[in-house]
Write a structure and sequence with these properties.
The chain is an alpha+beta fold. The protein contains three helices and seven strands, in the order ββαββββαβα. A seven-stranded antiparallel beta sheet has the order 2-1-3-4-5-6-7, with helices on both faces. The termini are far apart.
Length: 132
Amino acid sequence: MLIVTNERGHVVKRATKPAIGTMLAQLQRGDAHMVVERIDEERAGSWYIQVLLRENNTYQLEYRDGVPEQHFQTLTVSQGKVLAALLGWAAAKPGWKDGFMWNNIGEQFCSSCHGASESADAAERTMVPRPL
């Protein structure tokens, strides 16, 4: 199941393409962050993609593949590319990451790798992405 949440706490369960697109289009100051999370009881870890509309109107896009060490970040000015990435990730389409230069930022979350509880992992998921 896909769950989309914005900075103001608006939640859409079983998110659709239109819901994801609308939430992205509505990003603005005071509501500049959204997370698309994949909930699957059969997969361990946290699986999500998130976007932050930065003050300079660039998009900071991040995704995490299960574990903190697999947390990647990129920047773009294209809302269209962000939407394509969000929808590609949500649909698990191969190649959704293409067209971006991804940086592994997993080391920033390394302290949560060593003996962290699942609740700490959940808290990390809801944080606003760290600026560069």
